[in-house]
Known about the structure:
Layout (H helix, E strand, L loop, with lengths): L1 H26 L16 E5 L16 E10 L3 E2 L3 H10 L3 E7 L6 H11 L11 E4 L11 H19 L4 E4 L1 H8 L10 E4 L13 E10 L8 E6 L3 H9 L3
Parallel strand pairs: 1-2, 2-4, 4-5, 5-6, 6-7, 7-8
Antiparallel strand pairs: 1-9, 2-3, 8-9
Amino acid sequence: xxxxxxxxxxxxxxxxxxxxxxxxxxxxxxxxxxxxxxxxxxxxxxxxxxxxxxxxxxxxxxxxxxxxxxxxxxxxxxxxxxxxxxxxxxxxxxxxxxxxxxxxxxxxxxxxxxxxxxxxxxxxxxxxxxxxxxxxxxxxxxxxxxxxxxxxxxxxxxxxxxxxxxxxxxxxxxxxxxxxxxxxxxxxxxxxxxxxxxxxxxxxxxxxxxxxxxxxxxxxxxxxxxxxxxxxxxxxxxxxxxxxxxx
Length: 247
């Protein structure tokens, strides 16, 4: 009986050790849960903010990084101090650049739209459609009703799209999408940038997926610390056409 208990304890302890090791390897960027086929999805990119600090942009294209989404703003009053410089440096090294706004649940859409547009200097050429980041992580504690969120989000889109002449890409986690966006046909026209860190495919719910975030703790030469990895859900020719449509 004692021997059986000992073996069970060793088994449980070993499993816990292996789990802890897997988590450590994941956080170090040595392992991830998704390795999308590079033939099917040849166009890869990253999304960054000021958290990545100083970046050696010249190293990124050598690692098959083709595009970058840069955080421009959050809520109604925060802007990323590194945004403008990073856009210029990314494009100077041949990367297609796009901007995203983190949409808070605690500020009016009109105010957030003005904040987003304020950080983008007039005449700035962005290669990718602007993106709206909709998720719970890091958001305020408010959980408005579906109708309220829809009104504020529509106000944001109307202002920014009128200024930029482009429709947005909506970045979302599956949980947020299910709670707020899935049942609303008003948002069906906008392609998705989905977060899915597991397996080969992306959840879509019948919507068009333009981008997928498939890793959140990757490591790349030229960036200190973890970085998100993304892919374009199409061919190189389709990606080139997307960029051409913004000019």
